[in-house]
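## tool: complex_structure
## caller: assistant
## args:
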Amino acid sequence: MSELRVENLSKSYGKMKALDKVNLTVKPSEFLVVMGPSGCGKTTLLLTVLGVLKPDEGRMYIDGKDIDSLRISERNIGYAPQDFGLFPHLSTHDNVAFGLRAKARGKSEVEACVAEMLSLVGLEGLEQRKPSELSGGQKQRVALARALAINPYLLLLDEPLSNIDEITKAEVKVNLKETVKRTGVTTVCVMHDAEDALELGDRIAVMHAGRVIQCATPTDLLKNPEGELVRELLHHLVKIQ
Amino acid sequence: MQTETKIGEPAKKSLDKFNLALRMMAGAFILFMLVSLFYLYVAVGSSWGLVAKALFDSRILGALWISVSSAFIVGAIAIVVAIPTAYVLTYNNFRGKTLMETLLIEFPQTFPPATVGLVYLLMLGPGSPIDIAYTYPAVIIAKLYVSAPFALSFTLRRFREIHRTGLDVIAESLGGRTRHVLFWVLIPLSAIDLLGGFSLTWARAMGELAATLIFAGAIQWKTEIFPVVVLTTSQSDPPLALAASLIAAVLSIVALMIFKWIVGRRR
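## result:
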């Protein structure tokens, strides 16, 4: 259970400011949803914390430790991208075992952890299936199990529901929240859908034009949207009457 | 007057002149590419005994062995060196990278092979600290320079494709170091392309002539390769040269078809 702190994080692509002095603290075990329209900088924020993008300025801390200089492999951050990013040549079992093997864990430890993770996401019996033989919801659960298997300080989810069909979405949403809560991992989840965000997030950070314009619990956000912009976003996305 | 197509009636096939022109151009090119092989078959067809004779000719057998074995070694070395080179070119940005890629991939394919042979002869021939001219390693080196770009080009293209999918980043986020990304992600996902690169490198190495002849010479059972035998016997014994060419052509086609079959099965 770790805390993520982001201070004055900025990142530009040419003249376009993708992140503009972002300040954010994600408390231990908190499920923070970063929400906003396309191009607001939410994925850039995720990829910068992960270490794929280098910030132009600002610092990032996990449990008070500066992670800026750490390589992606040294940050111990679980990441599940929008398209799940499963290794197509590996079975469900080997996908989940990837990080444990990379960290040179013993065979019995790997087997026990993979079994525990697959049980956690309810995928027992599908160990030998390749990603091409799984449904969207199952792929999402494998990606989650794989990211959680390394016992990460932080879990980053990029639009976890965008590649799930509407029929299974509700079930996936419940499973996702339950699984994350059971492990207690601090989570930052990027979403564009306000309804999903309000349902999943302990707190929601609303982003616009590279800035976090409000960060509050779903109730506070609905009751007291700060400024016209948040009100408009919520009104537009949730259709509040 | 415009004719209407009623529902249920097959549409009247209109004569698409542009489509026809494309077909004719493709046909002409296909004919051009296949006619030489067909002519080879016809020319030898009158005297199949010559093919049998060629198969038992010690000089031809020697050249066949040198050609095939060296092409396999060149293919294997090309893959081994293409993997780290493709990795470096995929994951590192540096000044002059485009020029570097041109010098490694396109340039060797356009540089006259005779000049390649001459450069190696001066650099690694008589009088130089390392003299390997007219040896089997010289055959390998000459063929490698001319053929390896195929392996590199296939590998580099695939590594870049995988990099764009972000699977390498996921491997890293899971704690994977360079060796894990390379051996557990990049290489397994590039297996077909590596095989494709190997087969084209092998085929190019089989056909290489000038660089090898100048740098390695033509010593029977040591450095004399198949194209050299064809070249030297085409004046003194043209039917034998034709028969030898047919053997080489059949061998190449069969080998390439086997590679393609393996690639097809893996897909």
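## assistant note: Residues 214 and 226 of chain A are 7 Å apart (CA to CA). Chain A is about 40% helix and 25% strand. Handing back to user.
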